[in-house]
Structures are given as C-alpha cells and as structure tokens.
Specification:
63 residues; mainly alpha; 84% helix; elongated
Length: 63
C-alpha cells in the first residue's frame, strides 16, 4: 500500500498543478497545451513563471 501511495500522491499533485497552470494560461492568453505539459512536469516552477509573466497582450489584440 505504501508503494502505491508513493506513486499516486505525486501523480495527483502533478495533475492538479497541470490543471491550475492550464486554467491560468487560458485567462492570460497563453498556450494552454504548453502550460499544461509544463505544469505537469515542472509544477511549482511553471506556476511561478505564469504568475510573473502576466497577460499576453499580442494575442488579445489580434483576437
């Protein structure tokens, strides 16, 4: 059981971070797929980078 939890818990955390990054990317006009993948493999770093980057004004102006 311990081995199962040692796999499932980090995987669940990675999925949650991926979904949070995807949601943030959507609201900031960034690539959702890219940030979902980055959020899964590099959770905390991706979240911090998204917070620092802010909105992409070039995409919102052309849309």
């Amino acid at each position: 059981m311990s081995q199962f939890l040692s796999i499932v818990i980090p995987l669940a955390i990675a999925v949650v971070f991926a979904l949070v990054c995807r949601s943030m990317a959507r609201t900031r006009n960034r690539s959702e797929n890219l940030w979902t993948v980055l959020g899964f493999f590099f959770p905390l770093i991706s979240l911090i980078i998204l917070l620092i980057m802010g909105n992409d004004k070039s995409k919102s102006a052309s849309a």
